[in-house]
What we know:
By secondary structure, the protein is mostly helical. The chain is about 55% helix and about 0% strand. The radius of gyration is 15 Å and the shape is globular.
Amino acid sequence: MRFQKIMKHPLFKQSMNQIVQMETERIYCKHGIEHCLDVARICALLLSRNSQEIDFDFIYAIALLHDLGRSQEGNHCEASVKLAKIILPDCDYSENEIEAISQVIKGHSGRIPKESLEQLLQKKTLGLKECFKMADQLSRNCFCCQAADTCKWAEGERNQTIVV
């Protein structure tokens, strides 16, 4: 699978190491490899629930790269897209795939209110963009967070469940 090449790419490794160092003292949700892999797995689960085709190589590529821009200054989504456009050609992704991955990364940020999230989970017509954005939010284990008292997420945006 080509996404394995992403994990070995020098820019990916450097950026991920920077994120880990930057978040060493962070008490809130982190953005390391565990988060990336959780998002990929939850996204695949959501797509499966919606009877959508699951391209694991594509999903894992998006998940590995979606927060990589946190290693940079400014908007992390835009920075993640810039890094993805450097890394993906070296990992044999086509221009069309790079553009599609970039679109999902651009749209992944922001939180979905709890009521809307519950409604979306009942739908059977969710595409990759929607499933990925939801997976990013659902990857957060707010129901057992030690820092919940000071979290900036509104109560109605916090993930209080495990989706199966």
